[in-house]
């Protein structure tokens, strides 16, 4: 347990150098220093998550702290991969890393605070359940990047209306660039979320349950998918953009958050 706690703290500390560097407001293309600090920030949570999963006594941990660390690890990996190809994503690092650090702090504080019912996987579950878990986590990671871009667009639009440029966050992408990032990640999120619901239905069938098993998680996932599809349709038909779109993206992110870490919080903390 002492080694686990030390690794947990180390994973949190690994995020801080990249966060502090991002909030300095350095402009220009990402430098070698940026990539080194981002690699450290990614490695810390990923190493802890892999180590925690490897030492678990069950096939998959269901506690709230682990769910948060998995979300942070996947989101950081998605962000780093996207930043390598799109400079506007890299420019979101102040907001994105602040969000990841906040989740990591919450994960650290909630560690050991609950004993969730373990989820042991039966041999009959097959690869569908593992695939479904992976798809669900990927959806959350993609939508996290879209939510960070939406928040950046809201802040930029608010600064423009007040005619007060952002000082600490002057390196954020423009409103139009943020919207471009949002749309691309919404398409990815919609595709992966649809795949996730399909694999969820396949898992239900393997357990002899109805195809659509209406739980809190399922309802939130459907609500998020509906919001995302409505946003994409509005963007294609009317070119919808601006503050309203950003708010709806954040709403979809809230639904997905409630569907994954939120449900874990209720079941393993509030109802423990």
Any overview of this molecule?
By secondary structure, the protein is an all-alpha fold. The protein has one domain (2-270). The protein has nine helices and no strands. It has helices at residues 2-22, 32-54, 64-85, 87-90, 93-109, 126-162, 175-206, 216-238, 243-270. The longest helix is centred in the middle third of the chain and has 37 residues, at 126-162. It is globular, with a radius of gyration of 19 Å. The chain starts with a helix and ends with a helix.
What can be said about this structure in brief?
The protein is mainly alpha-helical and 272 residues long. It is 76% helix and 0% strand. It has one domain (2-270).
Brief descriptors of the model:
272 residues; mainly alpha; 76% helix; disordered C terminus
Secondary-structure element sequence? Answer: HHHHHHHHH
**Kindly, what is the distance between the CA atoms of the first and last residues, rounded to a whole number of angstroms?**
21 Å
Helix tally equals 9
Indicate the mean pLDDT.
77
Strand content: under 5%
Topology:
Blueprint: H1 2-22, H2 32-54, H3 64-85, H4 87-90, H5 93-109, H6 126-162, H7 175-206, H8 216-238, H9 243-270
Helix pairs in contact: 1-2, 1-5, 2-3, 3-5, 3-6, 3-9, 6-7, 6-9, 7-8, 8-9
